[in-house]
Structure formats: C-alpha cells, structure tokens
Amino acid sequence: MKYFSNEFCELELFDHYVVVTIQENVNFTLEKATVIRDKLRKYYKSKHFILISNRKFNHTVSYDIYKQGSLSNMKGIAIVSTNCEERNKALKEQPLYGKSFTFFDSVEDAKSWAETFF
Questions:
Q1: Which of 37, 56, 73, 110 could form a disulfide with 78 if both were Cys (CB 3.0 to 4.6 A apart)?
Q2: In terms of DSSP H, where are the helices of the chain?
Q3: Cβ neighbours around 41 below 10 Å, total
Q4: 19: which residues sit within 8 A by CB, 6+ positions away?
C-alpha cells in the first residue's frame, strides 16, 4: 500500500483499488481531480482498478469531474457513507458515470466488492 496526502485529500493506493478521502468542506473541482488522476495514472499505469470514495466528511463535488471523463482503466466507483445527505448527493452523480457505481456503509465492504472485479 502506498499513501499520499495533500491539503484537500488522502489517497490509500492498493493493488486493485484506491481509497480516496476528500477533506471537510472542500469544493472538489476538476483541477483537484486532475491532481488525483495524475497520481492514479502514475501508480496504476494501464492496470485496472476501482475507486472507493470514502465520504466521511461533507464536501461538494463538481459535476465537471464526470463530464471530463475518467481514466479508462478505472472499472467502477464505490461511494462509502452512512450520511444520508452525502448519499443523496452521490445519487445525483451516479447517472454521470457510465460504469459500475455503488454504495456501501463501510470501507471494508467496498474493498470486498472491489476485489470481486479481479
């Protein structure tokens, strides 16, 4: 596992999935998503992976992130939250992503789901 953090996020990079945690009250923009995408490109190269979005903090997500396309080797997104407001926001994002997109209450459940792809 490799770990990366900056002022707006934390990344835990595993063989088959990455756990992304956006910090509290961050406006997650296309510019910030590009920083994460660059890290994912360097780590996974052309290898397939799943993105697990650990939404333990409230933050906003720009829909432009989905409109600009995702990495072709990213096979799905798991949203992890027990907060109804965060899940409702993610439900609005779901139609913008054309691959597997699902919800979990725990990171461990999301990791187990991610492993089923491999």
A1: 110
A2: 30-44, 64-67, 84-93, 107-115
A3: 12
A4: 11, 12, 52, 54, 107, 110, 111
Question: Is-contact 64 29, C-beta < 8 A?
Answer: yes
Tokens of 70: 């995702």
- Enter the tokens of residue 36: 């994460």
Task: Count CB neighbours of 30 within 10 A.
Answer: 14
Global model pTM greater than 0.90 = yes
20: three-class secondary structure by DSSP: strand
The amino acid present at 117, given as its one-letter code, is F
- Return the structure tokens found at 84: 């109804």
Which residues, other chains included, contact 84 with Cβ-Cβ below 8 Å and sequence gap of 6+? none
* Amino acid found at 106: S
pLDDT digits (tens, 9 = 90+) for 47-83: 999 999 999 999 999 999 988 878 999 999 999 999 9
- Helix, strand, coil share of the chain (percent; to 5): 35, 30, 35
